[in-house]
Amino acid sequence: MSTERKETIPQDAGASAEESAAQGETPLGSRPIALIGFMGVGKSAVGRRLASQLGYEFVDTDHMVEAVAGKRVADIFAEDGEEEFRRLETEALTRALAEHGRVVATGGGTPSRPRNAELLARHAAIVLLEASPSVILRRVRPLEKRPLLAGYPDPLGRIKSLLRERRPYYAHYHFRVDTSKGTPGLTARRILEWYRGHEAAG
After folding, report:
1. Which is nearest to 148 in space by CA: 182, 177, 112, 114?
2. Which of 34, 78, 151, 192 has the most neighbouring CB atoms within 10 Å?
3. Is 1 among the domain residues?
4. Nearest to 73 by CA among 45, 102, 34, 105
């Protein structure tokens, strides 16, 4: 699995299924697909289309957390704190990656927790979705529904700051796509082509 900074890695780079097998790991094409990346990059929209194309189940870890907690993510942050949300998130990720035939949309901060990063590295074909800060800001409105952005007078600056903080956590992936341009369907097809190649190789 690639551990270089994303700026230096082309979009089709990453560990091969053969390399994973040689290291005693499950081949990428036999793993569930986990979509990682910042809020607003299109993980849910792309994930649903990709799952449909593959005939896989689509799951969203935020939705899984909400189902267990009985409240929205924003309310968990406000009433119980981020640590409680992260605990529930790790439990959800563990369940989500337990079966092969799934496309899993993760929360923006999921890879920042060591346990989550370990789960992803061991059990998922990791796809990083990216978008420019201005595109992200346009997509995430209304900001009141975004706990990490709500109340900030300069939301664009806040997005840029969070992206800088999370860059090291987003550096571990097998494939990446910039979603700033193009449709979710086009992005899904690009991921599908990459994944099918590893599926055949595995």
Report:
1. 112
2. 34
3. no
4. 105
For 25-47, the pLDDT digits (tens) are 788 888 999 999 999 999 999 99
- Whether 112 maps to a domain, the answer reads yes
Answer yes or no: is 202 within a domain.
no
171 or 19, greater pLDDT = 171
Residue 165 lies in a domain: yes
125, containing H or E segment? strand 125-130
What is the largest distance, in Å, between two alpha-carbon atoms of the chain? 50
Q: Name residue, tokens 């990216």.
A: 130
| pLDDT tens track for 49-92 | 999 999 999 999 999 999 999 999 889 988 999 899 999 999 99
* Residue 85 lies in domain: 6-197
Instruction: Give the pair of three-digit tokens for residue 190.
Output: 């690009």
* CATH code for the domain of 74: 3.40.50.300
